[in-house]
Amino acid sequence: MMFLPGMESDQTLVDVVIGKYNPSGRLPITYPKYNYRLSTYDYKWCEVLLDNAIDVEFEFGHGLSYTTFNGSRQGDHTVLLFISDIYRSITPPNKELKGYSKVSLNPSEQQQIQFILDQTDLSFIGLNLTRETEPGLFIITVGSLQANFTLLADDIHSD
Description:
Keywords: Glycosidase, Hydrolase, Secreted, Signal
Helix content: under 10%
CATH topology: Immunoglobulin-like
CATH class: Mainly Beta
Distance between the termini: 45 Å
Main location: secreted
Structural class: mainly beta
CATH architecture: Sandwich
CATH superfamily: Immunoglobulins
Shape: globular
Radius of gyration: 19 Å
Number of strands: 8
Order of helices and strands: HEHEEEEEEE
Number of helices: 2
GO molecular function: beta-glucosidase activity
Family: Belongs to the glycosyl hydrolase 3 family.
Domain Fibronectin type III-like: 77-146
Number of domains: 1
Protein backbone atom coordinates (compact mmCIF):
# COMPACT_ATOMS: atom_id res chain seq x y z
CA MET A 1 0.00 0.00 0.00
CA MET A 2 2.82 2.41 0.78
CA PHE A 3 6.06 2.72 -1.16
CA LEU A 4 9.07 3.42 1.07
CA PRO A 5 7.19 4.82 4.07
CA GLY A 6 9.10 7.02 6.50
CA MET A 7 9.05 7.47 10.28
CA GLU A 8 5.84 9.50 10.32
CA SER A 9 3.93 7.24 7.94
CA ASP A 10 1.69 5.65 10.57
CA GLN A 11 -0.78 8.57 10.69
CA THR A 12 -0.81 8.78 6.91
CA LEU A 13 -1.70 5.10 6.67
CA VAL A 14 -4.48 5.55 9.24
CA ASP A 15 -5.92 8.44 7.18
CA VAL A 16 -5.96 6.23 4.09
CA VAL A 17 -7.52 3.23 5.86
CA ILE A 18 -10.34 5.22 7.48
CA GLY A 19 -11.11 7.05 4.22
CA LYS A 20 -9.91 10.49 5.25
CA TYR A 21 -7.44 10.67 2.36
CA ASN A 22 -7.44 9.14 -1.12
CA PRO A 23 -3.87 8.31 -2.25
CA SER A 24 -2.99 9.35 -5.77
CA GLY A 25 0.74 8.72 -6.11
CA ARG A 26 2.44 6.75 -8.86
CA LEU A 27 5.34 4.30 -8.71
CA PRO A 28 8.71 5.81 -9.71
CA ILE A 29 10.06 2.38 -10.70
CA THR A 30 9.00 -0.88 -12.33
CA TYR A 31 8.22 -3.38 -9.58
CA PRO A 32 9.07 -7.02 -10.45
CA LYS A 33 6.65 -9.82 -9.67
CA TYR A 34 9.33 -11.97 -8.04
CA ASN A 35 12.28 -10.79 -5.99
CA TYR A 36 14.86 -13.31 -7.18
CA ARG A 37 15.96 -10.74 -9.73
CA LEU A 38 16.04 -7.56 -7.72
CA SER A 39 15.91 -5.03 -10.49
CA THR A 40 13.52 -2.15 -11.04
CA TYR A 41 14.63 -1.41 -14.59
CA ASP A 42 12.08 -0.78 -17.38
CA TYR A 43 12.83 -3.85 -19.49
CA LYS A 44 13.00 -3.65 -23.27
CA TRP A 45 11.35 -6.24 -25.50
CA CYS A 46 14.69 -7.78 -26.51
CA GLU A 47 15.64 -8.41 -22.89
CA VAL A 48 12.36 -10.17 -22.23
CA LEU A 49 12.48 -12.29 -25.40
CA LEU A 50 16.04 -13.51 -24.93
CA ASP A 51 15.11 -16.10 -22.30
CA ASN A 52 15.02 -13.53 -19.53
CA ALA A 53 11.43 -14.19 -18.54
CA ILE A 54 10.67 -11.12 -16.48
CA ASP A 55 7.28 -10.85 -14.86
CA VAL A 56 6.29 -7.33 -13.91
CA GLU A 57 3.86 -6.86 -11.03
CA PHE A 58 3.51 -3.07 -11.30
CA GLU A 59 5.06 -1.01 -14.06
CA PHE A 60 6.57 2.46 -13.82
CA GLY A 61 3.79 5.00 -13.28
CA HIS A 62 1.31 2.49 -11.83
CA GLY A 63 -0.97 3.77 -9.11
CA LEU A 64 -4.36 3.06 -7.63
CA SER A 65 -7.15 5.22 -6.31
CA TYR A 66 -9.81 4.27 -3.80
CA THR A 67 -12.49 6.34 -5.48
CA THR A 68 -14.36 6.04 -8.74
CA PHE A 69 -15.21 9.76 -8.53
CA ASN A 70 -18.92 8.84 -8.49
CA GLY A 71 -19.41 8.70 -4.71
CA SER A 72 -19.66 11.42 -2.11
CA ARG A 73 -15.97 12.23 -1.66
CA GLN A 74 -13.45 14.36 -3.47
CA GLY A 75 -10.39 12.55 -4.81
CA ASP A 76 -7.07 13.31 -6.46
CA HIS A 77 -5.81 11.73 -9.65
CA THR A 78 -2.36 11.94 -11.23
CA VAL A 79 -2.41 11.93 -15.03
CA LEU A 80 0.85 10.83 -16.68
CA LEU A 81 1.94 11.43 -20.28
CA PHE A 82 4.48 9.00 -21.74
CA ILE A 83 6.24 9.10 -25.10
CA SER A 84 7.68 5.99 -26.74
CA ASP A 85 10.20 6.43 -29.56
CA ILE A 86 9.88 3.24 -31.58
CA TYR A 87 13.26 3.53 -33.28
CA ARG A 88 16.29 5.74 -32.80
CA SER A 89 19.99 5.39 -33.51
CA ILE A 90 20.62 4.37 -29.90
CA THR A 91 18.35 1.93 -28.07
CA PRO A 92 15.42 3.90 -26.68
CA PRO A 93 13.72 3.22 -23.35
CA ASN A 94 10.27 1.62 -23.56
CA LYS A 95 8.63 4.88 -22.58
CA GLU A 96 9.65 8.19 -21.09
CA LEU A 97 7.60 10.34 -18.74
CA LYS A 98 7.23 13.71 -20.48
CA GLY A 99 4.43 15.33 -18.52
CA TYR A 100 2.11 14.94 -15.57
CA SER A 101 -0.77 16.76 -13.95
CA LYS A 102 -2.37 16.18 -10.57
CA VAL A 103 -6.05 17.08 -10.48
CA SER A 104 -8.57 17.18 -7.65
CA LEU A 105 -12.01 15.99 -8.68
CA ASN A 106 -15.28 16.39 -6.85
CA PRO A 107 -17.87 13.61 -7.18
CA SER A 108 -18.99 13.19 -10.84
CA GLU A 109 -16.71 16.05 -11.93
CA GLN A 110 -14.70 15.92 -15.14
CA GLN A 111 -11.73 18.08 -16.11
CA GLN A 112 -9.92 18.56 -19.36
CA ILE A 113 -6.13 18.40 -19.12
CA GLN A 114 -3.78 19.81 -21.72
CA PHE A 115 -0.17 18.85 -22.30
CA ILE A 116 2.06 20.90 -24.59
CA LEU A 117 5.00 19.10 -26.17
CA ASP A 118 7.93 20.62 -27.99
CA GLN A 119 10.86 19.27 -29.98
CA THR A 120 12.89 18.73 -26.80
CA ASP A 121 10.32 16.17 -25.65
CA LEU A 122 11.05 14.12 -28.79
CA SER A 123 14.83 14.41 -28.54
CA PHE A 124 17.53 12.41 -26.79
CA ILE A 125 21.22 12.68 -25.97
CA GLY A 126 23.08 11.03 -28.84
CA LEU A 127 26.44 9.30 -29.06
CA ASN A 128 28.25 12.63 -29.49
CA LEU A 129 26.63 13.85 -26.21
CA THR A 130 24.46 16.46 -27.93
CA ARG A 131 20.67 16.62 -28.05
CA GLU A 132 19.30 15.02 -31.23
CA THR A 133 15.86 14.64 -32.76
CA GLU A 134 15.38 11.93 -35.37
CA PRO A 135 12.42 11.29 -37.65
CA GLY A 136 10.34 8.22 -36.95
CA LEU A 137 7.31 6.73 -35.25
CA PHE A 138 6.32 7.89 -31.76
CA ILE A 139 3.54 6.73 -29.45
CA ILE A 140 1.94 9.06 -26.91
CA THR A 141 0.20 7.37 -23.98
CA VAL A 142 -2.04 9.09 -21.44
CA GLY A 143 -3.77 6.62 -19.14
CA SER A 144 -5.33 3.97 -21.38
CA LEU A 145 -5.36 6.28 -24.43
CA GLN A 146 -2.70 5.97 -27.12
CA ALA A 147 -1.97 7.97 -30.26
CA ASN A 148 0.68 7.25 -32.88
CA PHE A 149 2.38 9.89 -34.99
CA THR A 150 5.29 10.02 -37.39
CA LEU A 151 7.85 12.80 -37.16
CA LEU A 152 9.18 13.61 -40.62
CA ALA A 153 12.66 14.95 -41.32
CA ASP A 154 11.10 18.18 -42.65
CA ASP A 155 9.49 18.78 -39.23
CA ILE A 156 12.81 18.81 -37.36
CA HIS A 157 14.27 22.26 -36.75
CA SER A 158 17.76 22.81 -35.39
CA ASP A 159 18.03 25.17 -32.42
